[in-house]
Amino acid sequence: MQKIKAIKFALALAPIALFAQSAIAMPTFMKSGARTTQPIGHYELCQQYPRECSQKTRSTASVELTRPLWSKIVKINNDVNEEVAPRTDQEMWGIEERWSFPGAQGDCEDYVLEKRRRLMDLGMPAGNLLITVVRQRSGAGHAVLTVRTSLGDFILDNLQGDVVDWTKTDYTYLKRQSEQNSGVWVSINDSRSMAVGSVK
Known about the structure:
Number of helices: 5
CATH class: Alpha Beta
Number of domains: 1
Number of strands: 9
Order of helices and strands: HEHHEHEHEEEEEE
Radius of gyration: 17 Å
């Protein structure tokens, strides 16, 4: 019983510890580039859910990252990762690529869409919740959610439990949604030495 209590206590403190580390570190933001191609899966999702591609923001200001907000971000990341069992689109739909909001099963884009939806339900702007396409070390494509905050760009990922600064991952970042228009995609300059302390 004591061991269980200790584990629960450690889990409760984890978001606070991660927030403290983030607050101390120098904020880093991805450098976005020119407009690029929209993933076919996202295009098809937008035909089914037009609102997903019509969210526009006038400001690119980052969201103020407070302890309470950080805890909510971490909780949503953990909840969705636990609630959704990983399955490929081929296994679920019999096709190579289909972006959808998950039920009990989903692939990487589905995890991202659900996390994004829940964070938007908390009041976070669409322009700060950006679906992002990356390449894994193996060369396989993958999708994560970038959350733009005053303390930098953070990654929500179904392949790992922690919410981390984007520079702390081993992905190559390829493209993501535009901060101004959720239906537009922009390239990412992933030279980590180019990460800057201000948002473009």
